[in-house]
User: Which sequence fits this backbone?
């Protein structure tokens, strides 16, 4: 191996492979560059460390999604890459006057550590092969398959196997007293002791050929995400998951269109993220619409949009309007995606184009007309927003009262009978706790959330303008609302247009009052109550502890195969137990109301709420607690459809009020 000819061949081959990788990705980047220039700055170092190296999204995945396997494979690969890099630095250090540091105690630690870490890599690859073999035979698997996947796994496996074989051959051909530090290689070398140098050279080249095969394969298979996913992480916009990007009239005047009809209307980062997709199916597995049997398949949406980038076809037509309207914008797909693809933003941008072209009809279009005509998603007159207050002596802003919190009621909270119960309970609790608050009454208008998520951006901005003038008139600094959708819009989207106010969900404020001793926590009984986490509260805004704080003080997790039981209570009593469904917290299962679906017709056998109700009732609980008016409406219908037994549906605020009478 010391022959200049052999060294020259190695360097030429290696650099040709690296040049080939660069050339292919340069050509591929021309697809990404067809998009609009990126207008945001990214903390690319922190993002790469967090999402690419740290694999934050994969760590947050469920074990059955293959997360442990992927982590073993990736971090094992990263360890081997680091080992190779350190070896190269030590080898070429003398060329710049630095002594070779690959010796002494450092060498022994190096050999032992990376030898063991390599086992995790090989085990991860074997696990991936077995998992894919099972998935191929499972028609329900969301994992996509193509012949090149087997080649990729073969190459990855051979990198690890031939690497260990090469190490064993080196030890056998030229043994040293410190070789025992290479625990795996040393063990493998024992059966082939006294190996000839010629055979060692042959094994060395056999390993190099697999390295080269890996290099030239990277751009052509799903393992290209080693590059594209890293670039996607580096360019990730620093925006909240619950925020949609606004459209300005200037943009409309420049482009002559609203929303996206061709893929080049997306940003370059969005197109790059599409190319980073591995078709792992995590997004499809968690999609409530897909789980209910609808045509929406987030993984296919990504593939279809990227395909239009090559063909120039119309995006909404390629994805299909049926699939686009099926989305509840629950963000389960976004939360699950390991390569940061913003599915919901892509879908809403396509919806915007459909709405602008007049292609939304039925009850969804009726809702838009109602919001535009009355400022109320259910089409009720503004005067009806004060009917829930009867008999409560609720202070109104227009009366000139001083207040700390504005109680934002929302369209559902002022109209739906069940939601009205929640609103009245919240008002009474705030009074009991001595919280200074007031309401807008007839001056409140729909936040515009349903209009925006259906795709009517400018109706949303019109509603925002109405509310902005009222909020500024009364100098509102703090807002509390029982609607997670209103909360998300006021907290994460209004600040794009006006001064930011502190916005709280009612469970967050009430939980603080419980912690301060101004209210007493409710008792859900021992396993008699289950709680449904709203998507826009738990997943989108990360609030899952506060609601549980309303029924206890401490948390203890106890898992089994059927469900997760969330025990809540003071250490002294141990009696408060909330029966948790399998999907809870950030992993909650959508009720189906978001994204404007509340106002759209739903086939009885394809309702996400039915699936959710079955899971909730499967806990054995006879009381279902909620914290969202939309969820309450959907689950109420689902419970009546799925259960012949009497099941109580109640908001956490009502439970808390019962405990504080």
Assistant:
């Amino acid at each position: 191996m010391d022959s200049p000819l052999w060294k020259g061949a190695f360097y030429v081959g290696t650099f040709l492979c690296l040049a080939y990788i660069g050339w292919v990705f340069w050509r591929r980047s021309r697809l990404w560059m067809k998009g609009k220039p990126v207008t945001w700055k990214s903390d690319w170092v922190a993002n790469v460390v967090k999402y690419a190296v740290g694999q934050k999204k994969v760590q947050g995945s469920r074990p059955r999604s293959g997360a442990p396997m992927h982590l073993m494979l990736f971090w094992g690969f990263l360890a081997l890459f680091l080992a190779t890099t350190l070896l190269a630095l030590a080898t070429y250090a003398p060329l710049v006057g630095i002594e070779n540091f690959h010796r002494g105690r450092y060498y022994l630690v190096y050999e032992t550590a990376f030898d063991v870490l390599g086992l995790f890599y090989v085990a991860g690859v074997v696990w991936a092969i077995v998992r894919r073999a099972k998935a191929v035979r499972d028609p329900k698997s969301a994992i996509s398959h193509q012949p090149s996947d087997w080649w990729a796994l073969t190459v990855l496996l051979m990198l690890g196997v031939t690497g260990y074989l090469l190490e064993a051959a080196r030890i056998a051909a030229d043994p040293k007293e410190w070789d025992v530090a290479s625990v795996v290689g040393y063990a493998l070398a024992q059966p082939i002791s006294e190996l000839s140098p010629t055979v060692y050279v042959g094994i060395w080249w056999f390993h190099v050929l697999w390295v080269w095969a890996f290099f030239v394969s990277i751009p052509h298979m799903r393992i290209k995400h080693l590059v594209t996913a890293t670039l996607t992480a580096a360019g990730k916009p620093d925006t909240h998951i619950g925020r949609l990007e606004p459209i300005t009239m200037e943009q409309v005047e420049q482009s002559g269109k609203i929303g996206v009809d061709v893929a080049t209307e997306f940003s370059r980062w969005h197109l790059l993220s599409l190319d980073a997709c591995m078709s792992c199916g995590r997004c499809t597995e968690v999609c409530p619409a897909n789980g209910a049997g609808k045509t929406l398949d987030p993984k296919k949406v990504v593939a279809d949009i990227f395909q239009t980038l090559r063909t120039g076809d119309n995006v909404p037509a390629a994805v299909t309007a049926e699939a686009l309207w099926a989305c509840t914008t629950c963000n389960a797909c976004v939360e699950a995606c390991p390569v940061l693809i913003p599915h919901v933003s892509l879908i809403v941008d396509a919806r915007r184009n459909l709405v602008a072209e007049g292609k939304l009809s039925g009850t969804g279009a009726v809702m838009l007309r109602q919001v535009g005509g009355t400022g109320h998603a259910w089409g009720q007159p503004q005067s009806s927003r004060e009917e829930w207050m009867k008999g409560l002596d609720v202070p109104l802003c227009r009366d000139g009262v001083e207040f700390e919190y504005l109680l934002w009621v929302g369209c559902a909270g002022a109209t739906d009978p069940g939601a009205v119960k929640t609103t009245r309970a919240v008002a009474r609790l705030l009074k009991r706790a001595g919280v200074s608050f007031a309401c807008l009454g007839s001056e409140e208008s729909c936040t515009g959330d349903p209009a925006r998520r259906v795709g009517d951006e400018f109706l949303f901005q019109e509603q925002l303008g109405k509310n902005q003038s009222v909020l500024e008139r009364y100098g509102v600094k703090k807002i509390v609302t029982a609607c997670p959708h209103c909360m998300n819009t006021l907290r994460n989207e209004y600040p794009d247009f006006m001064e930011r106010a502190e916005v709280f969900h009612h469970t967050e404020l009430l939980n603080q009052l419980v912690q301060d001793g101004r209210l007493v926590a409710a008792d859900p009984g021992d396993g008699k109550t289950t709680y449904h986490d709203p998507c826009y509260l738990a997943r989108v805004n990360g609030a899952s502890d506060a609601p549980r704080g309303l029924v206890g003080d401490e948390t203890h997790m106890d898992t089994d195969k059927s469900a997760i039981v969330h025990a809540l209570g003071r250490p002294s009593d141990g009696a408060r137990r909330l029966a948790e469904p399998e999907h809870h917290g950030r992993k909650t299962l959508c009720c189906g109301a978001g994204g404007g679906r509340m106002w759209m017709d739903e086939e009885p056998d394809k309702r996400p709420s039915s699936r959710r109700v079955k899971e909730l009732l499967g806990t054995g609980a006879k009381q279902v607690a909620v914290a969202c008016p939309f969820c309450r409406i959907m689950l109420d219908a689902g419970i009546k459809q799925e259960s012949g037994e009497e099941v109580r549906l109640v908001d956490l605020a009502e439970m808390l009020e019962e405990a504080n009478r």
Q: What stands out?
A: The beta strands are 405-408, 437-438, 478-481, 502-505, 526-531, 555-559, 564-568, 577-580, 623-626, 648-651. Confidence is low (pLDDT under 50) at residues 553-575. The radius of gyration is 29 Å. The longest strand covers residues 526-531.
